[in-house]
Amino acid sequence: MLTAAGPYAPQFRGTLRVSFAASLVQAAAYATFIPLLAELTREPVRTGRAWLWVGLLAALVAGEAALRVRETAFTYDYWHLVTQTTRLRLGAGLRSMPQQELARRAAGDLTSVVGNNATTAAAAISSLSTLFIQLITVPTVLGIVVLALDWRLGLVLVAGTLAALPLVRQVQRCSNTGYDEVNEADAALSDRIVEYVQGLPVLKATGQAGAGSPRLTAVLADQHHAQARANRSAALPVAGAQLIVQLALVALVAIGSALALDTRLSPALVVAVVVTAARFAEPLSLAATMTKLFELSEAALRRVDEVLAVQPLPIAPDGQEPATFDLRFENVTFAYDGQPEPTLEGVDFTIPERSLTALVGPSGSGKTTVTKLISRYADPQTGTVRLGGTDLRTLEPDEVLRHIAAVFQDVYLFDDTIRANIALARPDATDGEIEAAARAANVHDFVSRLPDGYGTRVGEIGSALSGGERQRISIARAILKDAPVILLDEPTAALDTESEVVVQQAIDRLVAGKTVVVIAHRLSTVVGADQILVLDDGRVTQRGTHADLLADTEGRYARMWAAQLAAREWHMGSTVRPGR
Fold it and tell me: 285-312 as b/e, with b when 16 or more CB fall inside 10 Å?
């Protein structure tokens, strides 16, 4: 909880101290019933003494109330700030998290952590923490008081508590495991809901939408079963712990009555001890019930802490700002986490500044991994990636990305205006600069025809626009950034012929005078590249110009070129019978 409280940890510590003091005062107030009842049953009653205890009781009750008011100040003054700060810290953690680690985590899982788990963690800090202190402190003090009055009655309470503790621990273990499963099920459901909403057109077309969608029913059932298991696993231990505490209270009454009848204890003292013991038993019974909430909060706090504990990529010393923007891979080997075989092995090449280099090869050959390492997605296990002679490991990932603009086949636009999506590259850009980038990317013409112009909202993931329009906006974003290094992942592959021509014109303006790395699936688009690197099974097997590589008729590139030429000649046969 102190970790989750973050910058408000000092205020949280102060609240815990106030809560502890309030609990001590509360226990002292309950303890005053013993001498008060003793005075009221005395013959004759010493009125002055009785009123003295009544006055002390009233003062203790008032003192506890004042302390509880101070205790709740944290809830009212800081709870929302802790929630906000926790989410901001999580956001900062996600921003500094290595891209490889970020890609490993499902969107729904992170949504659950930043949303539900952050709220639960803040609630635990503001409410459950003080309740926990109260549930521990009050029974402890009252147990000591009863032991001091009569060791036999005190031992009954101690024995009952010791007998209930294993069951409370069992509740903790069951709830701990159960709520971890519930959190995992909640995260899986969140992720599936995101997927369901984004893929709704496909699900409708295939008849998989609606209440019976198998994409949702399975995870909903898993969530239901996880919640049911978590509740069932703790039900019997909770009931058992409460029963033991109540039996201990009954045993205390029976033994106290026997001692009173045997004149070993006064009836007034027995009554006072029973009243005190009842206040002792109530928090213990409540603690058994509240254990599930404590474990739920602990599970949420663990998930928040897991995200905050992820370390950013280390920054090696002696880093220097790149003065030039050539790229160099020096004997680079890289394997993704959890994969036994490397995706790249012994890769070595140079990309000169202001040149165009194409990466070609079959799927899984390592082309995308090369661009990821250029962006410092992760660091290679061996070898070095350099930008302008500077080892990328000596630069902050944000500093590396400041020099890079990327345009990929799959465009992501935010549910905001066209202007805002272009300005992501430079939030301080003027409207004139945004429009200039839009004109260069062939965006301005179609935007001018929209009723709200640059203020038009693009919808979720740009759903209100066509594929070509989305791609041109992403290129405008890259043009506005004006980075010296451009990464392209075949941005025209999914476009129709008309859109491809317009987008290609925008790309030509984008890459002018830049260091360009393009992943090429259609070889015809990169015949004019300064160099082409052929990757196969994580290694660079060929390099050269288009003409150089075609000259090697037995090489992978020549075979790929021949296969794509043959594919152009393919056409759909006449498979429809007459009359159908």
Answer: bebbebbbbbbbbbbbbbbbeebbeeee
The reported pLDDT for the residue numbered 580 is 42
Closest alpha carbon to 238 in 301, 158, 293, 280:
293
Cα 494 to Cα 129, 442, 462, 500, distances in angstroms: 55, 18, 15, 9
pLDDT of amino acid 394: 93
Residues of the chain with pLDDT under 50: 572-580
Instruction: Answer whether 161's CB lies under 8 Å from 172's CB.
Output: no
User: What are the C-alpha distances in Å from 309 to residues 94, 120, 123, 316, 396?
Assistant: 11, 18, 21, 20, 18
Residue 366: exposure state from Cβ atoms within 10 A (0-12, 13-18, ≥19): buried
Tokens 């503001």 locate to 126
Kindly report the number of other CB atoms within 10 A of residue 75's CB atom: 17
Q: Residues 3-24, buried b or exposed e (16+ Cβ, 10 A)?
A: ebbbebeebbeebbebbbbbbb
How buried is 539 (Cβ within 10 angstroms: 0-12 exposed, 13-18 middle, 19+ buried)? middle
Tokens of 120: 């639960």
| H/E element, 66 | helix 47-96
Give the residue from 530, 520, 557 showing the smallest Cα distance to 409: 520
Strand 327-334, strand 485-489: pairing: unpaired
The pLDDT value recorded for residue 579 is: 46
Residues 2-309, CATH architecture: Up-down Bundle (1.20)
3-state secondary structure of 358: strand
* DSSP collapsed to 3 states, 459-522: CHHHCCCCHHHHHHHHHHHHHHHCCCEEEEECCCCCCCHHHHHHHHHHHHHHHCCCEEEEECCC
Per CATH, domain 327-568 is 3.40.50.300: yes
Task: Give the Cβ contact number of residue 329 at 10 Å.
Answer: 23
Dump strand ranges (E) for 97-174. none
Listed in order, the ranges of the chain carrying CATH 3.40.50.300 are: 327-568
* pLDDT score at 381: 92
Answer yes or no: are the C-beta atoms of 462 and 424 closer than 8 Å: no
Long-range Cβ contacts of 542-551 (<8 Å, 24+ apart): 543/349
Q: Which backbone phi and psi does 570 adopt, to 5 degrees?
A: -75, 140
Does pTM top 0.70 for this prediction?
Answer: no
Ranges in the chain annotated CATH 1.20.1560.10 = 2-309
**Helix, strand and coil percent figures for the chain, each rounded to 5:** 65, 10, 25
Show the tokens assigned to 355.
């040149």
Q: Which of 170, 144, 172 is nearest to 158 (CA)?
A: 144
Residue 511 CB partners (closer than 8 Å, separation 6+): 356, 486, 488
Distance between CA atoms of 330 and 379, rounded to whole angstroms?
13
Place of tokens 């409460």: 242
| CA–CA gap between residue 248 and residue 277 (Å, rounded) | 9
Cis preceding linkage at 44, omega within 30:
yes
Q: What are the strands of the beta sheet with 356-360, ordered from one edge?
A: 404-408, 485-489, 515-519, 356-360, 531-536, 539-544
- C-alpha distances (whole Å) from 226 to each of 38, 121, 169, 176, 218 are 53, 20, 20, 12, 12
CB atoms within 10 A of CB 153: 24
